[in-house]
Amino acid sequence: MSSMPSKKFKDLVHYIIEKCPDPTQLGSIRLNKTLWFVDVLSYQRSGSSITGDDVYIKRQHGPVPKKILNALRQLEKEGRIKIQQPEFEFDTTKYVSLVSTDESALADDEKLLTDNVLAAMLGHSASAISEETHDLVWRAVKVGDEIPLFATLVSVSGRITEEVSGWADRIISNANSEVGT
What we know:
Order of helices and strands: HHEEHEEHHHEH
Distance between the termini: 52 Å
Shape: elongated
Helix content: 40-55%
Largest sheet: 3 strands, antiparallel
Strand order of the largest sheet: 2-1-5
Number of helices: 7
Structural class: mainly alpha
Number of strands: 5
Radius of gyration: 20 Å
Strand content: 5-15%
């Protein structure tokens, strides 16, 4: 797998940066978590991520896209964004969009999903957002390990209906009958 981010990955990162009304609100944690939730929700709904990436890396504060640093460097080199490093201990990295995003790179439903996830991210503290990503899948791997998006499918609880419960009871009953014969 190439370590270079796709155009769509970069366009999504740029879109998130541009859509954030205040660069002091985004920071690395919210940017990474927005990408995580957008990709996970897209993957769970359609079987593919928006970014085209299907692997994230476990970091202390949650999953991080494998290609995010390269994408940010390329966006800055292309003059599309400016990255302002933290100025003091509890400051955050600021990402500033310098040019308009090519919104044609994203489908309308992808933009809507991203807008909704970003709005949710901006409504919570960075630490609360990090805690949200510390789910069963995140806890199952070591810091630095890869988290494939397909693993998130096991962290989604299904609804147990009477139909499912009845099916399970029949399977158990049949298994018990076979053991007793």
